[in-house]
Q: What sequence folds into this?
């Protein structure tokens, strides 16, 4: 079925409006959401949903947006499905004062970002640009990220909501909408109300290339290595002082390069130090540990213990402790129990006119944790590229295809009920 979409705000107009709102999350904050400004986008989304007739749309105290699109089919047993995207942008790069630029009818050239010409999008470094010939590519101006991760997904879901409300030819069951804060800092579903959603299956719209669907993520742990050294007056330290800060530095230097993120790809995992702090008497190193197989998470933690013990052989008065905390797990384990969720997603992509490709993602999504909270949730492309940096980009046509995919997916679930 070829979709006849109704003109209103285009997905591009929505996207340009959303990226103008700074929603950067903050990993140092202990509040929910981590930054109050994320609610500014949430309030706008609720207002827009209510304007198009989604009467139960609301923003809760934790910064989550919930909404329901009622069923328009006579079939009584269509499973409830949920579409989810996150509103926050990465703390790694500024999201304040975003100035989006539409490079129309892209012809394959390198793209210059005018506010910082050193931020050049080279087609040799962004090979997916080769698939955008003739498309309209959106970037920021060179001083901020764009916010396509994940405001492209937000805009696509919002545009799909408008189509579902206003196009009775698109038959569907009950559709739940969830927009989350704080995904970029690993807290995206900490306060989500699964019972309120009441969905059988979910789909995050937070992926990269058009046509891709991801049913597998890293499994992830966080680790903190705490070094306890010996402090002494530096003027009288010979033979006495064992600086915990220096010991920590040695350990970071000796990390196996073959297990570093900058030297791994595909299905390879890694150990990555993300912070070091302390003083002479005590210091700590924060790590993220990633692997597709949980067994390797254990191996990598043991690798850290082994390395710390070897380094401390030269510091007999010092000791270490490794604290490991689970972050999220590979959603494939849960999705394999419900194969139709992925199958229907692949069918929807094909119906939208693309070659469907099933992929693994070297990262995680809200869907990773939702899958283990009782909502199996693969990840569908949003068209976003070069996440978390000033060279982030998305194309208008890929966002339009994501909208079509969402709508076809609603119809597939209704047909197969």
A:
């Amino acid at each position: 079925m070829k979709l006849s979409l109704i003109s209103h705000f285009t997905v591009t107009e929505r996207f340009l409006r959303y990226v103008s709102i700074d929603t950067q999350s903050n990993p140092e904050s202990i509040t929910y959401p981590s930054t109050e400004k994320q609610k500014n986008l949430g309030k706008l989304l609720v207002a827009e949903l209510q304007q198009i007739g989604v009467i139960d749309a609301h923003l809760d105290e934790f910064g989550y947006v919930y909404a329901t699109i009622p069923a328009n089919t006579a079939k009584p047993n269509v499973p409830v499905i949920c579409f989810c995207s996150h509103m926050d942008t990465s703390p790694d790069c500024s999201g304040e004062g975003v100035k989006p630029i539409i490079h129309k009818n892209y012809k394959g050239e390198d793209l210059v970002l005018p506010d910082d010409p050193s931020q050049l999008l080279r087609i040799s470094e962004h090979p997916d640009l080769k698939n955008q010939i003739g498309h309209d590519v959106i970037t920021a101006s060179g001083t901020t990220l764009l916010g396509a991760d994940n405001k492209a997904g937000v805009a696509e879901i919002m545009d799909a909501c408008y189509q579902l409300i206003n196009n009775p030819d698109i038959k569907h069951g009950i559709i739940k909408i969830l927009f989350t804060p704080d995904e970029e800092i690993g807290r995206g579903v900490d306060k989500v109300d699964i019972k309120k959603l009441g969905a059988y299956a979910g789909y995050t719209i937070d992926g990269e290339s058009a046509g891709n669907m991801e049913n597998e993520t890293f499994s992830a742990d966080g680790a903190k290595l705490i070094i306890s050294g010996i402090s002494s007056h530096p003027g009288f330290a010979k033979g006495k002082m064992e600086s915990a800060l220096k010991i920590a530095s040695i350990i970071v230097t000796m990390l196996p390069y073959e297990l570093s993120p900058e030297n791994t790809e595909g299905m390879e995992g890694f150990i990555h130090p993300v912070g070091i702090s302390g003083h002479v008497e005590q210091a700590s190193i924060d790590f993220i540990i990633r692997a597709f197989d949980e067994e390797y998470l254990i191996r990598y933690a043991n690798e850290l213990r082994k390395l710390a013990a070897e380094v401390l052989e030269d510091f007999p008065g010092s000791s270490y402790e490794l604290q490991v905390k689970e972050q999220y797990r590979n959603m494939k384990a849960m999705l394999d129990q419900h194969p139709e969720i992925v199958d229907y997603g692949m069918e929807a992509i094909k119906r939208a006119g693309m070659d469907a490709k099933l992929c693994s993602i070297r990262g995680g999504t809200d869907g990773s944790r939702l899958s283990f909270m009782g909502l199996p949730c693969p990840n569908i492309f949003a068209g976003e590229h070069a996440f978390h940096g000033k060279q982030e980009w998305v194309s208008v046509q890929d966002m339009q295809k994501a909208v079509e995919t969402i709508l076809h997916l609603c119809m597939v679930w209704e047909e197969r009920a």
